[in-house]
Design goal:
24 helices
Amino acid sequence: MKRTAFFILFACCWVSIFSQTPDTGTLLRQLSDSLNYCIKHRQEYINKKETRIRTIKHRLTNKPQDDWQRYEIYDQLSKEYQKFNVDSAIHYAEKKLELSTLHHKSTELTRSKIDLSLLCSMRGRYLEAEKILQSINSSSLDKNLRAEYYSAYHQFWEYYSISSRDNAYAKKQFALYDDSLIHVMDHSSISYKILQANIAGNKKQYLEAEKKFKELLADEEIGSAHYAMITCGLAFNYMTLNQPDQAQIYFTLSAITDLRNATRENMSLQILAMMEFQNKNLELASTYAQIAVEDAVASGIHFRTSQIYQFYTDLNAQYKQEETKQKAKLRTSLIVISCISFCLILLAIYIVLQIRRISRIKETLSQSNEQLRELNNRLNLMNEELNHKNEELHEIGNIKEKYIAQFFDLCSSYISKMENYQNQLYKLAINHHYEMLVKRLKSTSQIDEELKALYKHFDSIFLSLYPTFIEEFNALLSENEKITLKSEHLLNKELRIYALLRLGLVDSNKMASFLRCSISTIYNYRTKMRNKSRIERDDFENQVMQIGKADTHK
């Protein structure tokens, strides 16, 4: 019964819009009632969305016949999660990428990369998103894939611009991809027509943009995802034309659609909150903003979180101002009561009402502050994670640059030695010096010399990367256990083990293979060093991994 009533009300609103009714105030009230209904039943729409997702996931447990059936299911799950929970969407996009990589399907592989880059952009992982897009050879793409590729770059710059507070370069790049998309998109597609309308608005052709949006709206199914995009675009166009009532009508229609579709990237609801805030409807603004914050946090969409965070800060400031004003009014009222006894009863009623209002404001403010604290904690964790990743990438880059040059030099030298050794053996063979040939083949001196040279190269390269390694390593040992090297050695076996560990080689088997010794020897050396440590044994190797980190950034 409730749902039937909602649809009747929504249909009446839609008929009123296209009948050009002059009573805009009545229409706004009707739409506001519809929006409040959707907010009240918001959890039902979310539950419906989650049920649909569970149904799709259930298909995975039924053991699909082949990998491409799984690929299609992963693709469907990724799209369902895209504007609902971006972390889950990324998870299934990565699953798609794994399958397409495994089977060397170039089209599916490229599409999976494009989808993953878009999701990374939404999550705020801009470096990763750009790296993925840069790995794609755009010149080899067909028209459809090129359109998807340009669209991903288009949204990357849009989201980056929002997150970086309207970065001028990002906005310029975003505009450039408008032109690129126009040339490669299917001209019959709804996405192409929406883009045309948006470009017309960006070029200040507002009447043309309005015409295009309304033509699209007349043909689009009410309540679809494209319907939400079209009404939102039309609303922005009316805001530019300084028609706030018309803008509010279409923002409300867009917000209703987003709520019913459980779309958590609900920009329209954020805009409505700001409009109500500007109109001094703080309670309604707070309600809309709270829903927007909850959706932004739940979805994990970074740029929306950044937007609503600033707005929430302003809203709190306004609430504090309002509280101050109300307290001032209360004091004035008390003075008037003491002076005018005739109005005592009326003023007493007024004071009670004011106190109740202040209490509601305090309660709402408390909830807002809690939301802000949670949001700030999440942002801090995200920043810490990004800083840590950047440090790791910087260190890896330094190591890679230095090792590559040394690697090529070492390989060249070794090849020359092998050629020389081969020539020597060949001369012995053709001259029938078989006894000497067998003697040379049995001899290990060549191997010993090469191993000695290898270790010398390793020591030299490692110490050039971490010049203070020996000093810092000794600093971790007890005073009477410090390592003193012979003058002809750069590193001894114990130091080489921990040098390999510092470079990220934790496998004892690989260490033993490189150092030409047994695994038990490696284990004994590591145990002996931990026992010599002046710090906690369990923390010794973790401290070794921190050696030289400051140097890698120089």
